[in-house]
């Protein structure tokens, strides 16, 4: 089975950096996904990590350590539009198991 | 444009009535999924289908039914047996990786169901 943990809420100031951690326990590892979900909308894909290390995509980066069962999503130069919930998810055969999500609030 | 559509966006139902939520995709994905999301909670899997004419129960299938007669379509029926049907329902689709596990899932815009 899957056990995925992430913080419930985080608050940061516009222009700052925020790091959202995700720990997981899986019976077999096949990568880790990060999604962004604005309130009332569908999740949208942000990143997929299958190898250890940091992958950068503009202001967003995602890191994975398979030996530690740990990932983080790094949001740089925060903007008001980054206020959303961020979900980490791991494949479980034909399914995705999602964490409960971290709600990030960006203040002016 | 390829994508996933869900209709309607908002749906109101009286207690005791069945209701069907539509999900259509033109991404040529083999797999489709239905999730339920409650306020402040993560996504919970209701049903999924790996291929046409086949589907499997997810973690919270009781009170729901699905069909997969076409690759593009995966409708979800919320029956009167579902005790707490008011929620945000999301449909998703994906292909498979070479390792045989789900690839990136892409979501439709969702249907918000309210039982009156």
Determine the fraction of residues in helical runs of chain B and give it as a percent range: under 10%
Over all CA atoms, what is the radius of gyration of chain B? 14 Å
From N to C, what is the helix and strand string of chain A?
EEEEEEEEEEE
Question: What proportion of the residues of chain A form beta strands (DSSP E)?
Answer: over 45%
Oligomer: heterodimer
Residue share in β-strands of chain B: over 45%
Give me the secondary-structure category of chain B. Answer: mainly beta
Number of helices of chain A: 0
Sum up the structure in keywords.
heterodimer; A: 108 residues; mainly beta; 6-stranded mixed beta sheet; 5-stranded antiparallel beta sheet; globular; B: 116 residues; 7-stranded mixed beta sheet; 4-stranded antiparallel beta sheet; 11 strands; 0% helix; 48% strand
Structure description:
Chain A has 108 residues and is mainly β. Chain A has no helices and 11 strands. Chain A has strands spanning 3-5, 9-13, 18-25, 32-37, 44-49, 53-57, 60-65, 70-75, 84-92, 95-98, 102-107. In chain A, strands 2, 4, 5, 9, 10 and 11 form a 6-stranded mixed β-sheet that branches. In chain A, strand 7 (60-65) and strand 8 (70-75) form a beta hairpin. The mean pLDDT of chain A is 93. With 116 residues, chain B is mainly β. Chain B has no helices and 11 strands. Chain B has strands at residues 4-7, 10-13, 19-25, 31-37, 43-51, 54-57, 64-66, 76-78, 87-94, 106-107, 111-115. In chain B, the strands form 2 sheets. In chain B, strands 2, 4, 5, 6, 9, 10 and 11 form a 7-stranded mixed β-sheet that branches. A 4-stranded antiparallel β-sheet of chain B has the order 1-3-8-7, with no helix packed on it.
């Amino acid at each position: 089975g899957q056990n995925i943990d992430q913080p419930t809420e985080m608050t940061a100031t516009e222009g700052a950096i925020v790091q959202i951690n995700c720990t997981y326990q899986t019976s077999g590892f096949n990568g880790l996904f990060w999604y962004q979900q604005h309130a009332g909308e569908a999740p949208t894909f942000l990143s997929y990590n299958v190898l250890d290390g940091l992958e950068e995509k503009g202001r967003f980066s995602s890191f994975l350590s398979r030996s530690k069962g740990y990932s983080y999503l790094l949001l740089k130069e925060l903007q008001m539009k980054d206020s959303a919930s961020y979900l980490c998810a791991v494949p479980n055969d034909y399914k995705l198991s999602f964490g409960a999500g971290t709600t990030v609030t960006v203040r002016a | 444009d390829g994508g996933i559509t869900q209709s309607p966006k908002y749906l109101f139902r009286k207690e005791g009535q069945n209701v069907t939520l539509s999900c259509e995709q033109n991404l040529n994905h083999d797999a489709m999924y239905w999730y339920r999301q409650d306020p402040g909670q993560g996504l919970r899997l209701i049903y999924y289908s790996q291929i046409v004419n086949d589907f499997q129960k997810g973690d919270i299938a009781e009170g729901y039914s699905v069909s997969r007669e076409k690759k593009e379509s995966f409708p979800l029926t919320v029956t009167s047996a579902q005790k707490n049907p008011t929620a945000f329902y999301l449909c998703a689709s994906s292909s498979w990786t070479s390792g045989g596990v789900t690839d990136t899932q892409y979501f439709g815009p969702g249907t918000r169901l309210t039982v009156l």
